[in-house]
Amino acid sequence: MNQRFQQVDFPYEQLLAIGYHSVFNGEKAPVISGMMLLPLKTRYRGPANPVNENETDIIDEAINVFRPALFYNQYKIKGEADRTLMYLFLYLIECCKQLHGMTNKTEAYRKLRDFAIQKSLPIPGEARFPLNDFFDPPKNSKEEETLQAYLQQLRQECGDRLVNTVFRHSETAADKHWTMFGKRRFINRCFNP
Fold this sequence. Notes:
It is found in: Cytoplasm, Cytoskeleton. The protein is mainly α.
């Protein structure tokens, strides 16, 4: 047989495994609904333990890998911290929608703070939550309360940091290279289809 036509073993499995996985997957932290409740650098009250300001937390990681991660059609979970990252990706998409066309950094802060405390965003286990096949529902009402408080704290801090990132170059115009990601989906899902 001719060498040119011989089948080459291609590592398809490795190619599909390419993606961004959290560096916090090995950490010891409480887990609710399969989601790791990681410490945060935050000034908002909530169940998350505080982290030193010089350290990287899950929100920093999510913002850093958000844009490239949206180009993947599949996502293989390697740990509970990946589920937290997935939730943040969905929330960042919604934030980018909110920031589209914003011309004032102060107004953007206000808009995302109001958006973060809305009760209309679903949590794992609710019928409207787009990633229910990756998450377990909370086991009881105490877990549900803790998860809601953690997700609200996560959203508030994430929104503040995203505004700083989107308005990094100008106080009067949102960076279109960030806000355009409000039109994308993460593994073909988003909060509000």
